[in-house]
Amino acid sequence: MLAVLMQAGNNGGAETLLWIIAAVLVIAGIVNLIRGAVVAGIVLIIVGLLVGPGGVSIFT
Predict the structure, then answer these.
(1) Domains of the chain: total
(2) Would you state the torsion angle of the CA atoms of residues 14, 20, 22, 26, taken in this order, to the nearest 10 degrees?
(3) Domain residues for 26?
């Protein structure tokens, strides 16, 4: 699946890949918060928000 996204190139493949990575990081952060690892959960959520291709992206 990742190979297909990376081959998309000019068709927004990199942006889609960043959305997927950001979503996984945020979900992992929420799971960590539920399990009790508050600091790790908060860090993962913040990193997920920074990686996402939205307005707070560190790659734009």
Answers:
(1) 1
(2) 180
(3) 14-51
Rounded Cα–Cα distance for residues 26 and 60 (Å)? 19
Is residue 57 within 8 Å of 18, Cβ to Cβ?
yes
- The sign of the dihedral angle between the CA atoms of 52, 57, 58, 60 is positive
DSSP letter, residue 10: G
Return the residue matching tokens 């890949």.
17
Q: pLDDT digit string (tens) for 5-59?
A: 445 555 567 778 888 888 999 999 999 999 999 999 999 999 988 887 665 655 5
23 within a domain of the structure (yes/no): yes
What does the pLDDT read at residue 24? 93
Residue at token pair 């009790």: 36
Whole-model pTM: value is: 0.69
